[in-house]
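Handout, section B. The chain below has 131 residues.
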Amino acid sequence: MGAQIVEFGGEKIALLPIKDYERLLDLAEDAADGLAADRAEERRLAGEEYVPAALVNRILDGESPLRVWREYRGLTQSQLALAIGLKTATHVSDLETGKRAGSGRLWSKLARALNVQIEDILSDEPDDARH
């Protein structure tokens, strides 16, 4: 690495060839990526859940977050209904399609049953009956 030191405005500055500068940038980015990976692994070991990009993409593409999370957890509508004390799977279906609003208490039960935050299963659609 061939750097040249110059003084500019009373401050010493290192001038170096662009290939050396780019190499330093790459090394700095690699170090930052390594630290980020270490922190992510620490969070994973502490119990933070990682979900597949496909799950996130389905929600971003407009699918019902409740349906996506229910399916990801491997539950049928009937199983989820039973888990939260609903009498029929139709109630879950109506929540997933937006035909029913559901109370805050009901959404809280759903979130607990799916082990997610309420915000994770509510749709962001402005005309959604749940909001």
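Note. The beta strands are 4-8, 11-15. Compare this with the example in section A.
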